[in-house]
Specification:
heterotrimer, A alpha+beta (363), B alpha/beta (294), C alpha/beta (210), A: 363 residues, alpha+beta, 2 domains, 12 helices, 39% helix, globular, C: 210 residues, alpha/beta, Rossmann fold, six-stranded mixed β-sheet
Chain lengths: 363, 294, 210
């Protein structure tokens, strides 16, 4: 006698209770606050904001807490929340040239107007576990120079004045930037949509693509023209006012990669640009994004598209970790109807081969 | 009109998103089998769990609908339970497990055994909407093939099966041609279900959330499974019937009963099996009807 | 002094005709009937009960369809005859849809049945993107009182007869010419004060005088 397994509802409820318990961990250890995550897990928060495409450190920290520290799950939570929000206004493009930078470096010039600012970076740390942190320690205050009023022109603009780098190509008057959260992705995509896709894209995947292009699966020879990290003002122009007002500040990481270009039939030898921009402090992502952006511009420079990082359909179709993680993990859902179809198939094929073999032996 | 117990709109989606999806559905109905791109939204369930079907259902469902959700033919699989709950919470609609009583049926991987009627809409969850994807990875190329009805690659692919293995080995997501024009992926239903799509009186809607496509088969529309004159399309058959209800005309799941090779076959459509047993039909392994928690 | 609001039945010109009493529920109901109309071509569906009235000269049924379908993403063409300040105000207030400067830019068009010879002016989509074709909402005095037309195709078991008033002349042959380029074509919804009849592009319809 057979009774089919029942109780999907109860199983789901129990699973959720177990999940809540696992998230909390040992109740003897104090509960982690969202403020602690926001202040002390800042780079995780920044990644969730960047790939979740929502600038809200508190919600990103909450998502990380709820997701047990899993970045992709936290990004998913933020995305699903973001999609329900009304669009109240479009901001003006932010002016990164007027960024209040806490870090700004160029690998192409020894000194630049505005200076190099090392800022908070892992770059020159020795990666030795700091056991002092086990006991909770307050670091000594860092020396801080009063932020000078000196302007920080973009390094690429310095090259631009000499005509050595391709000119920026401003969008035509009245053109609207695409938004792949409001319109389906089409190929070929514009650079605006490509950059949006990369900015939301999985850091690891974009990093891997950029790395592949550096290793020869592509043809970028990039220099880090400039990386700057800091806050910029976000402005909107309310219809009833007709002039811009500041609605907030966001922290951004911007990277301008400079690539050599030998010239083509229509264009002289010059440097070319790759651009990366992320919410928060995320140099790895911004640099990788800039390299992939340049790779995807192959057609503009009559470069043959031969490698994955140059292939728009391949890159844009696979950057999104919410999509990728969902599709991969859906294999956990029951597939027994289809598997039964395959069983019927394989058995029939085996019967056919076996009877054919028997016949051969008989002959 | 808010959802019963959430801060979200009725059926979760905001009205502008619903309008966008509704417009896509209308175009899908107007061009049977053509995949309409739509600006799919992130849903609070993961991609792969039926976000396309859920968005279509959310755009279509109304307070007077009765919803049935099945996965693998069953109402009580975890994902079906989860999606049904989602609409109970966000739309407060009546739900049912009885196929005939449903006005809206969302499904993953099956078409119910009972013949659907004009009062019903069947919503399929679709993972890969492009039937040509395995032959051509590029969207820019497959789009051209559909535009020109240039489907040679598909026929070559199916014929290769016959040449190598003596038969077409595709057992699910078996490609169909809709109204003599578009080749369409029926979603991963077993090919056993393909004939049910042909001239079905109910409207069939397909939602692919991750791939952001919606397509449709209007009622009473020709749906042919691709085949060759010398290798006509065939559906799966079993040598035995359902062990519980004795049905010999339904799609069967194989249940492993022990580790010594024990197997039994049972209806994948749990409502169909239930109805038959209530009507007095019985298979070799059945407890008398009413004595099991079924 | 501020004048006291009048209780007249005729609205002041600056107050748009009303929208749905329950926008979420009513838009869903209207959509389902429209979906039924396009799924079962030629079969009239009731939609006269969703709005008390439309902006002159739109029927309340037509206005309900506008509220259900139009928004900032859908340029709408208003055929002369239906292009009145009341209609523009209604669409701008409730839908926020842009008004198309040319028929070819429109996602939706509102036209009286007499203007049906305009069919060729609308965008029929492309072979790659046939979904970009326009949807025409054509006002007619009656979707049942005209010359009989026989329709066959998707959504129709054998043959469906219907009879849109005013859709005679060369209308049916013009439509056939536009739809010969399937999958490109135009999707039409005939609207009378109470009912709608859907006619998607793939459905063959043969008029008496075609």
């Amino acid at each position: 006698m057979y009774v089919a397994v029942k109780g999907g509802e109860a199983a789901i409820d129990n699973a959720h209770a177990l999940l809540a318990e696992a998230r909390r961990g040992d109740p003897a250890v104090p509960d982690l606050t969202v403020a602690q995550i926001r202040e002390q897990m800042t780079l995780a928060v920044d990644r969730v904001m960047a790939e979740g495409s929502l600038y809200d450190p508190d919600l990103a920290a909450l998502a990380l807490k709820q997701a047990r520290g899993d970045a992709v799950e936290a990004i998913f939570l933020v995305r699903a929340f973001r999609t329900t929000l009304p669009r109240l206004a479009h901001s003006l493009p932010v002016e990164t040239g007027e960024m209040r930078a806490k870090r700004r470096i160029s690998a192409t010039f020894k000194d630049i107007p505005g200076g190099q600012i090392l800022g908070p970076t892992f770059d020159y740390t020795h990666r030795l576990l700091d056991f002092a942190l086990l006991d909770g320690e307050t670091p000594p205050a860092a020396a801080s120079a009063a932020a000078g009023p000196e302007a920080m022109p973009r390094v690429v603009d310095i090259l631009g004045r000499e005509g050595l780098i391709e000119a920026d190509r401003p969008a035509p008057e009245g053109a609207e930037a695409g938004d792949l959260t409001r319109a389906p992705l089409e190929f070929p995509a514009g650079r605006d949509v490509r950059l949006q896709n990369l900015a939301r894209g999985d850091e690891g995947f974009v990093l891997g693509l950029a790395y592949s292009s550096q290793r020869g699966f592509g043809s970028t020879h990039p220099f880090a023209g400039e990386i700057r990290v800091g806050t910029v003002e976000v402005e909107i122009v309310p219809e009833e006012l007709g002039f811009p007002i500041v609605v907030g500040r966001v922290e951004l990481t911007e990277c301008q990669m400079i690539s050599q270009f030998k010239g083509s039939k229509t264009q002289p030898p010059q440097f070319t640009r790759g651009y990366g921009l992320t919410f928060g402090h995320n140099e790895r992502k911004a640099m990788a994004m800039a390299i992939v952006d340049r790779s995807l511009r192959a057609d503009e420079f009559d470069e043959e598209r031969r490698y994955p990082a140059q292939d728009e359909e391949f890159v844009l179709g696979h950057t999104d970790n919410v999509e990728a993680s969902g599709f991969l993990q859906h294999l956990k859902l029951p597939h027994y109807v289809d598997f039964q179809g395959e069983l019927v198939n394989i058995r029939a094929l085996r019967r056919a081969t076996q009877s054919a073999r028997k016949q051969e032996t008989a002959e | 009109m808010n959802a019963p117990d959430t801060g979200y709109n009725f059926a979760y989606l905001d009205e502008q998103t619903k309008r966008m999806i509704r417009r896509a559905i209308l175009k899908a109905v107007a061009v049977p089998g053509y995949q309409v791109p739509f600006a799919g939204r992130e849903m609070p369930l993961p991609y792969g769990w039926g976000t396309g079907g859920i968005q279509v259902t959310a755009a279509v469902i109304g307070a007077d609908d009765t919803l049935k959700v099945i996965d693998q033919g069953a109402d009580d699989t975890t994902n079906a339970v989860s999606i049904r709950r989602f609409f109970q919470r966000t739309a407060g609609v009546a739900t049912t497990t009885e196929t005939e009583k449903a006005t809206l049926i969302q499904t993953r991987h099956r078409i119910p055994e009972a013949r659907l009627g004009e009062h019903q809409i069947l919503v399929y969850q679709v993972p890969i909407p492009e039937p040509l994807r395995w032959m051509e990875a590029r969207e820019s190329e497959t789009r051209k093939m559909h535009a020109l009805a240039e489907y040679g690659v598909m026929h070559v692919r199916l014929y290769e099966d016959i040449a190598h293995m003596g038969r077409i080995v595709k057992s699910y997501d078996y490609p169909v041609r809709v109204n003599g024009r578009y080749i369409m992926a029926p979603s991963p239903i077993p090919k056993f279900d393909n004939p049910k799509m042909d001239r079905m009186p109910a409207l069939q809607l397909f939602g692919a959330g991750r791939e952001k496509r919606i397509y449709a088969v209007p009622p009473y529309t020709r749906v042919e499974s691709l085949d060759f004159e010398d290798h006509p399309f065939e559906i799966q058959t079993w040598s035995e019937g359902c062990a519980l209800c004795g049905a010999t005309d339904s799609y069967l799941d194989e249940v492993v009963t022990d580790d010594r090779g024990g197997r039994m076959m049972v209806c994948s459509d749990t409502d169909h099996c239930d109805k038959r047993r209530a009507a007095g039909h019985s298979g070799p392994m059945a407890a008398p009807y009413g004595e099991t928690p079924r | 002094m501020i004048p006291f609001p009048s209780r007249d039945q005729t609205p002041a010109p600056n107050i748009p005709a009303p929208g749905f009493a329950d926008p979420v529920r009513d838009a869903q109901r209207c959509f389902r009937r429209l979906l039924a109309a396009l799924s079962y071509p030629g079969r009239p569906q009731e939609i006269g009960d969703l709005l008390p009235r439309g902006p002159e000269p739109l029927y309340s049924s037509t206005a309900a369809l506008c509220l259900t379908l139009f928004d900032v993403d859908t340029p709408v063409w208003l055929e002369p005859g239906l292009d009145t300040p009341e209609v523009r105000q209604f669409l701008s207030f409730h839908c926020g849809c842009p008004i198309a400067a040319h028929p070819g830019e429109a996602a939706f068009a509102l036209l009286p049945v007499a203007a049906a010879e305009r069919l060729a002016a609308f965008h029929v989509g492309t072979p790659e993107y046939p979904d970009r074709a326009a949807t025409l909402l054509i006002q007619t005095p009656s979707v049942t009182g005209g010359a009989p037309v026989a329709a066959t195709g998707p959504g129709i078991p054998e043959r469906q007869d219907f009879a849109v008033a005013g859709a005679n002349g060369g209308f049916w042959s013009r439509r056939a010419a536009v739809d010969a380029a399937f999958p490109c074509g135009l999707d039409i919804v005939f609207v009378d004060p109470r009912q709608i009849v859907g006619l998607p592009r793939g459905v063959h319809a043969i008029g008496e005088d075609a």
